[in-house]
Structure of Allantoate amidohydrolase:
Amino acid sequence: MVMEEKKKLTLAQQTAEMVEWLASFGGSKSGGVTRLLYSESWKLAQEALKARMEEASLHAYYDDAGNLFGRLEGSQKEGRAILTGSHIDTVVNGGKYDGAYGIIAGVLALKYLHEHYGRPKKTIEVVSLCEEEGSRFPMTYWGSGSMTGLRSFDDVYLLKDQEGTTFIEAMEKSGFGKGKYQHPGTAHFDCFIELHIEQGEVLERENKSIGVVSHIVGQRRYNVTVNGESNHAGTTPMKWRKDAMNTASALIQVLMEKSKRMPADLVVTVGQMIVEPNIPNVIPNKVTFSIDIRHSDSDIIQSFCQEAFESFEGLARERGTSLDIHKWMDEQPIKMCENLNELSTTILQTEGTSFKEMTSGAGHDSQVFGQFIPTSLLFVPSHKGISHSPHEFTKTEDLEKGINLLIKILHKLAY
Ligand code: HGY
Ligand code: MN
Ligand code: MN
């Protein structure tokens, strides 16, 4: 679709077109989207977004981690810029909106502001953050983490994906990490505003258009590796086995049973399991499974992990197996910026748009930026609360309400 035609489209039509367009990068026949960090579909999406940013009269540029920025230069040379955006990577077979919506909202908001108000006083930038999910390598928030210093290049070089490709190989193959672009940083940003789908169904159930997030829950992720002994499924008596799967299933039951005795808003998920040698007639000698634990109070997360892991060692020993427990993510609960939230709620009250102040059970790049610069996270409803799935859906009119709010916030802050 050429630029001229795009200009005549309404904001709602541009939004709907851009959602489908971006979802085509890594899109599958099942309607899911898979765009993993530094993969071919990730690279094509970033390159295509760069062109869209330039079409929208933004100055587009990368940093050395592969974060892509679109800048609407302000007339005031001094002073720091306002940043908006979200992450371009997805989970495997995820939805069209998680991360992508925040980038689309930023590009269309800056395009609208430039077309209707010309040059701002303060510079505004939209960022397509290279990675947030932790779907390819065992590490999350690489985009926002590399910008804020929460993650360093040293942390990631030797990480490997499930195919055995190292992080540095993948990064360099997609053209980053070699010093060709500026080093990631947040030095010239004043604040960060992220639009995101709720990924829950509170807004839809309560018929509210916007979620203004007050806090994001704390989140920990572990990989637990059980080491046993492979052997013949037919000739090895049960009492002689060192069965890594038997132990893993006992440990997972401990987690699920223990969670029933914890506050209802503690959530624990075992989402990934790697079995070796993963053959029906061989007793597994190694099972690695992930644990994702979240709660708004980090002391509750700590006590849950401590008590659960205490029983792990004994259960493993009883079954002739041993354990390695590796914590690879530990983000504290964080409060969002009250001033920015007040700006949003004032705009919403004035225009009569329904909203709800709420906690986020999902982690977001705002959880990282919020540790360094004033940050605001704003939700639009997810149909039936479904996310991380091809069935993720948000109505265009809800997407548009979020973008209109972003336009008003940025206009207030930058013009
Ligand atoms: O897992 C999460 O909370 C987010 O979608 N990365
Ligand atoms: Mn996600
Ligand atoms: Mn997300």
Residues 132-133, 362-363 surround (2S)-amino(hydroxy)ethanoic acid (ligand 1) (CB under 6 Å). The CA atoms of residues 373 and 393 lie 31 Å apart. DSSP finds 13 helices and 16 strands in the chain.
